[in-house]
TrEMBL record:
Residues of the Organic solvent tolerance-like N-terminal domain: 47-158
Pfam families: LptD_N
Gene3D superfamilies, per database record: Lipopolysaccharide (LPS) transport protein A like domain (2.60.450.10)
UniProt-annotated location(s): Periplasm
Gene: lptA
Keywords: Periplasm, Signal, Transport
Family: Belongs to the LptA family.
HAMAP family reported for this sequence: LPS_assembly_LptA
High-level lineage: Bacteria, Pseudomonadati, Pseudomonadota, Gammaproteobacteria, Orbales
Protein's job: Involved in the assembly of lipopolysaccharide (LPS). Required for the translocation of LPS from the inner membrane to the outer membrane. May form a bridge between the inner membrane and the outer membrane, via interactions with LptC and LptD, thereby facilitating LPS transfer across the periplasm.
Biological process according to GO: Gram-negative-bacterium-type cell outer membrane assembly; lipopolysaccharide transport
Alphabetized GO MF terms: glycolipid transfer activity; lipopolysaccharide binding
Protein name: Lipopolysaccharide export system protein LptA
A cellular component annotation (GO) from this entry: cell outer membrane
Signal peptide span: 1-23
Length: 184
């Protein structure tokens, strides 16, 4: 059996194990309609809670459908559907979430600040530790607010790139004292 198949088979065996859905909340037991999974990326566990899942061993893809909640080290994504590609290759691993909308929340540990956002699609590139919000994207940090067609948020560097898309505009509300305060 190839190492990929052995790893995915191991993941399948772990399905009944109950994991914590939220980092600071007590553990909850899965119900009959939910399964929880723990996958390791860059040595930080990703906890996924969903109604259903599908594993394609040959293509190295896992799909979660129905009230999907993803938590990794202060990052939370809520979506209708999530597709994880390249499970065994942390250099390429990507988590794509779809929803109406997908909600995103990041707690910045060193500053204890919260960044939230939502859009039609959220792509989390695990290796680069960045989040791309696409389609009616909005990002909030305190009273600072960005609206754009696409927003790329580099979690490590704390940098945001907003792109308007075709015939669109980027709209921002910036509170200078709050922006200055986030860098202290």
């Amino acid at each position: 059996m190839s190492s990929l198949k052995q790893t995915v088979f191991s993941l399948i065996l772990l399905l009944p194990i109950s994991l914590s859905s939220f980092a600071n909340e007590p553990s909850k037991q899965p119900t009959d309609t939910k399964e929880e999974h723990k996958i390791f990326a860059d040595n930080k566990p990703i906890t996924i809670d969903a109604n259903n899942q599908h594993i394609d061993i040959e293509k190295n893809i896992i799909t979660f459908i129905g009230n999907v909640i993803i938590v990794q080290d202060g990052l939370t994504i809520n979506a209708d559907k999530v597709v994880i590609t390249d499970m065994q290759d942390t250099e390429k691993q990507k988590i794509t979430a779809y929803g109406n909308p997908v909600n995103y929340k990041q707690i910045l540990p060193e500053k204890n600040k919260i960044v939230t956002g939502h859009s039609a699609q959220v792509i989390y590139n695990v290796k680069q530790n960045n989040v791309v919000l696409q389609g009616n994207a909005e990002l909030f940090q305190q009273d600072n607010h960005i609206i754009s067609n696409q927003i790329t948020y580099d979690v490590k560097k704390q940098q945001i790139l907003a792109q308007s898309g075709k015939n669109g505009r980027v709209k921002s509300t910036i509170i200078p004292n709050q922006v200055k305060g986030t860098n202290k």
